[in-house]
Amino acid sequence: MASDQVLTEIKLTSLPKLAEGKVRDLYDVDDRTLLFVTTDRVSAYDVVMKNGVPHKGALLTLQSAHWFRVLAEKVPGLQTHFLSTAVPAAVSAAEAPLLRHRSMQVRRLKVFPLEAIVRGYVTGSAWKEYQAHGTVHGAPLPPGLPQCAAIPGGPIYTPSTKAPLGQHDENISRERAAQIVGEQYAARIEELALRVFRAGQEYAAARGIIVADTKFEFGLDEETDEVVLVDEVLTSDSSRMWPKDKYEPGRDQESFDKQFLRNWLTENGLKGKEGVEVPEDVLRATSDRYKEVFQRLTGKTLEEALKD
Fold it and tell me: Is 210 helix (H, G, I), strand (E, B) or coil?
């Protein structure tokens, strides 16, 4: 069985630490390789909770690794930063168990300062905007759409800035995205984001899951000038995912993601508040949702995956 130990902080001395994000820590392996270490920390509304979600680091890491392999086959020409889930040889024998199943080696690339958000359904902040203005990301949609309706015409690309830790991302226009990264790269990011999203939607739908929206990140291979899919991909942290058999427009949906946690924070007046300690039953329920979508997508329970 997977260990129930929750690791919200990992102190690694074998490798130089380069950065710490809301959930992931980044380490230097060599001139061409980085190590992503996924903790069990959980954030909502851009704030990190005091306690973490059981098994989250392993679930997110192994689910991303699965998606990188699947998408590389389903999206012709797609390049990703993923190399391996093997623990680097430079990590000491004492520290290696901390990283097993919650870390992945990735290519060292220049990351574009954009969040490549793709939305397939009118939900979350998109629903609030639509209710107020009849638009999503400034683009008009037909009147009368119910909450969680599929966006007519298919998924749309709605970029935002990638804000430093502790700050909020800002929705931006496609034109502003082009100003930030250059027209050529902006166009390629948009194209890839939509293609990857559609491929992910199709794969997930065959397994009883609706991918409603997600956030991608991309980097640049400066040697080849190729745009590369980086960070995590189509996880319960970066995406809204719903059970297909329970989908019903006109209401909030049951979910396989951290919407359960967001709802608890909102209902208890804690949205955006710092230093929140989440009740164990809420964290456990969140973990169970992450586990269920992991099993549906990969065909394995977490315990089975940890044996590989």
Answer: strand
- The full 3-state SS of 188-200, as one line of letters, equals HHHHHHHHHHHHH
In 70-181 the beta strands, taken as DSSP E runs, fall at 82-84, 103-107, 110-111, 114-119, 135-136, 139-140, 156-157, 160-161
| Dihedral sign (CA 68, 243, 102, 299) | negative
Residue 217 half-sphere exposure, CB side, CA atoms within 13 Å? 18
Listed in sequence order, the residues at least 6 apart from 61 whose beta carbon sits closer than 8 Å to its beta carbon are 36, 38, 85, 101, 102, 103, 104
Largest CA-CA distance found in the chain, in angstroms, rounded: 60
**Angstrom distance (rounded) from CA 105 to CA 28:** 10
Comparing CA positions, the residue from 204, 210, 104, 203 lying closest to residue 149 is 210
pLDDT tens column, 102-144: 999 999 999 999 999 999 999 999 999 999 999 999 999 999 9
3-state secondary structure of 174: helix
Helices then strands, each counted (H, E), the chain:
8, 16
Token digits for 19?
Answer: 């950065």
Q: What is the DSSP string of 242-263?
A: EEGGG--TTSPPP-SSTHHHHH
